[in-house]
Every structure is written in structure tokens, then in C-alpha cells.
Amino acid sequence: MVTVGRSGQRGTFWMPSAGLTADCVDSSPAAFLKDQSSRCSRRVVLDQDCRSLPALSMNTYSDIQLFTGKQIDAAVVPMEVASVILQSTDDTQTELQISAGENLSPVLLRPNLCANVVLKVIYVIKYNPGGEIVNATVTLVLGFVSNRMLPLEQEFQITYVQEDGGDVAVRYSGNPGYVVGLPLVSGTKTADGIARSIDPRDTLSLLHSAEDQDCLQDPHQRSPVLFGLNSVSGCTLRQSSPILN
């Protein structure tokens, strides 16, 4: 896949992975339409690398723009941040509500403790039947890293989903098992068991909380239920005074 830099130069979309050793190799290209998952480790000196090493910062994995195809006049698709999850020192995870302009760069809290370090990166690339990229999202898990956790282990995943259902198999949020921050897959109970839709967008969902979300009026806006993340939602029930009396 081809990326575009700030000055318009073309580059390659890299997918870090382990090489001959467990050490991360950042110059490994991501193959189009090939789901990948990798783990690798980095040798880090916290008091020197916490703020300066690009591989620790979420911007390295989110500040990306992809060409929809290899044509010279191909459109550009920005990488959208689907969610950012903060993992505490006791491994509990919480989804962050990010506001515009918020800085989540790594920060050295103590000489032996660095916060907001990228621990896991999950890319989801959506493409159309013509083989062009139509959407790209990334989910990031940030956490705290101390000297006792070194060398730092990072995990990377990339999944491709076709825009239209067609003959595309249903994508789980992980294989095997679910991945924190990605949607749960749902189905309909039948006499023969549970029937799943071939539409990858058909996931377990909740009403999307919004000021204009009426409990009784269609269409209802919905948000997918993400594995490992607690959610609260609701809607507004509007009734006239005579009915209430």
C-alpha cells in the first residue's frame, strides 16, 4: 500500500514485525488484502527514548494518509482513529474520550516510568470490489512502561474488510478470540442454531446517545458494542401532556 507524505511524496505503509530475532523491524511493508498479526520487542532506554523514539508515539501509527490505489491520480484516504484505550499498570483498560487538540504523546513521569506508550496497534482497512481503499481506521492501546517491563513488547494487527457484503466471510474482532476495542459479531437465533449475517457491519450494537435520539421515532442511530469496553447509552422519550396524565 502506498502512503503520501506532508510534502506529497509517495511512501510505503509499514507493518512492524519481528525479523530474525524478536526485535521489531519497522521496514516491513503491509501486504494488501493479507491479514497480518505480529509481536516484536524493542530495546528502550526510558529516560532517553520516552519522548524521542517515534515507535513509542501514537502519532507514528495514526498520522498516516493512504492512496486509494496505485494510480497517479488516486484519491487520498486519511487514517481515522477509531478508539484509544489506556492500559493501567495493573492491566485494566479504559477507553479514552479524546478531545480536539489533546496531546497523548509519551511523557516521562519518572526516570524509570514512561506513560502513553503504544502497546498495541490494530488497523482495519475497508476496500471496495474494485480493489480500492475506501476507509482506514486504527485502534491504539497506550500504557505505562517501567524498567522492569523492558524490553518493550508491542503487538500489531491489520485486517481487511470488503465494503459490500457479497461473498465476504464475517470478520471477528480477533482470531482466535476477541480483540479489545473491536466490535462483537452477532447473529439471529433460529431453530438450527445461530445464523450470522454476511454483512461485516452487522454487529451487536446499542442506541447511540444523542440529543436528537428519539426512543419511538426511526431511524435509530446505533453504535457497535466494542469488546472489553463498558458502554452506557440512552434515548429521549417524548410524550404529550394528555398521555402523561
UniProtKB/TrEMBL annotation:
One GO term (biological process): protein localization to ciliary transition zone
Organism domain of life: Eukaryota
Signal peptide: none
Annotated GO CC locations: MKS complex
Domain (Tectonic-1-3): residue spans on this chain: 9-162, 174-239
Any Pfam family matching the protein: TCTN_DUF1619
InterPro entries: TCTN1-3, TCTN1-3_dom
Quaternary structure and interacting proteins, as annotated: Part of the tectonic-like complex (also named B9 complex).
Protein name, as recorded: Tectonic family member 1
